[in-house]
Amino acid sequence: MRRVRRQVLLLLALTLSLSLVGLTGTATGQAVKNPDTFIQVSFGDWDTFDYAWAYDTSSHTVIFNVYEPLVAYDGGRVDRFVPRLATAVPSLQNGLVSADGKTYTFPIREGVKFHDGTPMTAEDAAYSLQRFLMIDRDGGPSSLLLEPILGITKTRDDKGNLTLKFDDLQRAVQVKGNSVVVTLKEPFGPFLSIMALWSNVVSKKWATANGDWNGTAATMAKYNNLKKESSAFFEKANGTGPFKLERWDRAGKQVILARNDGYWRKPARLARVVFRSIDEAATRVLMLKAGDADSIAISRREQPQVEDDPNIRFIDNLPWLRTDAFFFTVDIDTRGNPDVGSGRLDGAGVPANFFSDIRVRRGFAYAFDYATFLRDAFRNQGALPKGVIPPGMLGFNANQEYFIFNREKAIAELREAWGGQVWERGFRVTVLYNTGNVPREIGARILKDGVEALNPKFRVDVRGVTWASYLAAMNDGKLPVFWVGWIADYPDPHNFAFHFLHSDGTFPKAQRFKNDELDRLVVQAIKETNRDKRQALYFQINKKFFELAPSVSPVNQVVFRVQRSWVRGWYNNPVFPGTDYYTIFKG
Amino acid sequence: MTAFVLRRLLLLPLVALGVTLLIFGLLQMLSPQMRAALYVTDPRQLRAVDSVIRTHGLDKPFHIQYVGWLSRVVQGDLGWSETAKMPVAKAIATFFPATLELTMFAVVPIIVIGIWLGTLSAVHRDRIVDHFSRFFSISGTSMPTFVWGLLLLMVFYGTWQLFPPGRLSLEPNMYVLSQQFRPYTRLMTVDALLNGQLWIFVDALRHLALPVLTLSLVSCATLVRVTRSSMLETLRQDYVRTARAKGLESSIVVNKHARKNAMIPVVTLSALLFVGLLNGVAITETVYGYPGIGLWGVNAAIQLDAAAVAGFALFNALLLVVGNLAADVLYAVIDPRIRLR
């Protein structure tokens, strides 16, 4: 009995001492772990490594380091290009862009080999581009190049039948000598910006040998909107980039890249890059502190756990080409909709067209406390907004007047709304966000507090719903006010102006919002080839965005990076899907 | 006994049918737009909702979707798991060994310590061992798994870097993924030994230590309580008193006479615990970044991955039926008075 008691007491003492030590200590002063391997630990999975299918950041981080485009961004610059698999960046000056701005010639670099050792040719480059356009899977990235090159945004009709003509594809993307010539439907200002991210080159021979499209008209329909897993590029890769895809270990939730020793530039300094997916943020933080991760993905919530660690570099205030906003649905589907209360303007609900009155929208916009949002949701990192176009992009106007938290102006707008009925009768409406998104939840609550403080008859509910419910309700026009964001596909204001303001854009469609003048301005701006004139048009668009307030951008977000202090050679480009591991080394 | 076993196994297809019908029925209650969220994960894809619904046939009537799925299942095709990015059957085969390995290592301390501490607690009722045992049980069951997990991780990994998360460290991991290593069973410890790689075996054990400890702390506590109650009940029986009156040693009375009879509820609980662990221990797997079947199952459910959820449920039904059957058979082994008919 005495022995048992002694054992029990010993166990208790051990447990307590371990807990006390463990909660306070961290390992410091470590030597560089795994010096030639970079370990990136994030959350979420990779979707596919097919460059024409993938549209998620995780997949594109891998693709970005395995494949190469014809032209690329010049380091951290988003407005300057360097040739990559092409030998020159097409421009009017060098004669590789035609005078009408519609034809681009890309002379293809010689001596470049794919990872399997076969040489890369102009035919490969043309095939890759045609395949990117032709695949056009549901919700995929093909429309980014379909729009400028073929003047269409989809390749199927409403019944799912292929409408793309092979001849059009052949005419638009041609091989001439050792060059690829791309002919656009209309001049398209940001064409090179898109090409710098989305013109990856794959081996036609390898693709065909692995059962993928052989580049002919006969098999085109079979590969259009193909199933992800049917693609030859789904889990294998054969690019020209500085790293080879060694393994997608789905059982271990990791992807391993190995250095391409036959790379046409100087080989990378890292021998391997390992991407691991760990769902729990606290575990990722511990891995970084232990040196088992070189960089991790975390949210602002975990910032205090890492920012003061001498072994960790916390790099903050990095620009991010992203706009978040709260959107107003101007024609709400009120049928069986719990978020509009009574469905009438009687103090207990809102009617379908409640937000079609511009004064209601502007009243809400002035009632939002932007500074508090920046503080509570982003620890004061970022900036107060200036419209729909993020800073650092053509068309961003630092002098643009935009909403600020102003109770008097909010009251003035809402007093006038619906001929004074809003102020007289009051309303009840719900602001929605997708659960798990903490900044949006904070924002929704700030909007609620701001609007309810104006008039005791105003009632704003806040409701978080799962992504599935959110998506369905957004698509059906059932969300009166909803939060969502957009990350740039390419660094050009068109990518934002179209999807936030054009009636065919993603969000106006969900909002049922249409404004003829905005539609006209957005189309005019994209066709304009003169940079100064384009800028002036986007200034105009931004001004209209403020005046009409179909949605309200509450903050200009910035992003941060967390990495071990032994990581060298990292640089930021806000449009990259992930890190450029070519320049990185540890030491 | 054979007839009993066969009869119980024959129930399996019916259970499977019921379970999958229920899962599909529940998923069908969600609109096609909601189910499209599995494929439309980014606001940039919002405009593709209708074509996604059409492509994947999400708007087809329930019976057509279910019968189509069932006919493929009969042919051995459980469908494609969007969350695992592989066929459902392959996903089960991929993720289950990790959980099986974890369970095999966890179940031994759970049962041994659970029964030992429960018995000790009952025999030394209201003494310090009993108080410790009850404190252990209450703290084990009342503290959430993720709290235990993170606490242990902070101490044993954050501070001492003894037991890292994941399944293997970098170098063993690279070796295992290379051509030199043959995965015979996909149980890392077993395969390491079969490949003669002791260093990988040791590394795998280091990675198993904390998940096993977490599961032991959480699951063992319940077993301690049940064993203690059952033992207390048994120790009050007349035959135990008679055995003591005969002058038998206390250890013989407890271990030979009382414990065996107290084991019926313990066996039931142990079987359920074992099956429960095999079904996946999602929280433990999440905290330790341990890619097991539970983690996959939860992600599939969150993302409304219908084929994966149905396949996962089917597999769990199989485990449950077999687990319960094993418990029933064990009753007869423990207590010869029980006859299986």
Give a quick set of tags describing it.
A: 587 residues, alpha+beta, Dipeptide-binding Protein, domain 1, Dipeptide-binding Protein, domain 3, five-stranded mixed sheet, 33% helix, disordered N terminus, B: 341 residues, mainly alpha, MetI-like fold
Oligomer: heterodimer
* Alpha-carbon distance between the two ends of chain B: 6 Å
Strand order of the largest sheet of chain B: 1-2
Please report the total strand number of chain B as a whole number. Answer: 2
The Cα radius of gyration of chain A reads: 27 Å
Mean pLDDT of chain B: 90
User: What is the fold named in CATH at topology level of the domain at 322-557 in chain A?
Assistant: Dipeptide-binding Protein, domain 3
Rg over CA atoms of chain B: 24 Å
| Proportion in β-strands of chain B | under 5%
Number of helices of chain B: 15
DSSP E strands of chain A, number: 19
- What structural class do the secondary elements of chain A suggest? alpha+beta
Summed up, the helix count of chain A is: 20
Runs of chain A with pLDDT <50, length 5+? 1-5, 7-28
Report on this structure.
The complex is a heterodimer of chains A (587) and B (341). Among the domains of chain A are: 68-230, Dipeptide-binding Protein, domain 1; 322-557, Dipeptide-binding Protein, Domain 3 (Dipeptide-binding Protein, domain 3, Roll). Helices cover 33% and strands 17% of the residues of chain A. Chain A contains 20 helices and 19 strands. In chain A, strands 7-8-9-1-10-17-11 form a 7-stranded mixed beta sheet, sandwiched between helices. Chain A has a 5-stranded mixed beta sheet with strand order 14-13-15-12-16, sandwiched between helices. The radius of gyration of chain A is 27 Å and the shape is globular. With 341 residues, chain B is mostly helical. Chain B has 2 domains: 2-81, no CATH class; 86-334, MetI-like (MetI-like fold, Orthogonal Bundle), CATH 1.10.3720. Chain B contains 15 helices and 2 strands. Chain B has a two-stranded antiparallel sheet. In chain B, strand 1 (80-81) and strand 2 form a beta hairpin. In chain B, helix 1 (2-28) runs antiparallel to helix 15 (306-334) and helix 5 runs antiparallel to helix 6 (128-142). Chain B starts with a helix and ends in a 7-residue tail after the last helix. Chains A and B meet through helix 1, strand 9, helix 9, helix 16 and strand 15 of A and helix 2, helix 3, helix 5, helix 6 and helix 7 of B.
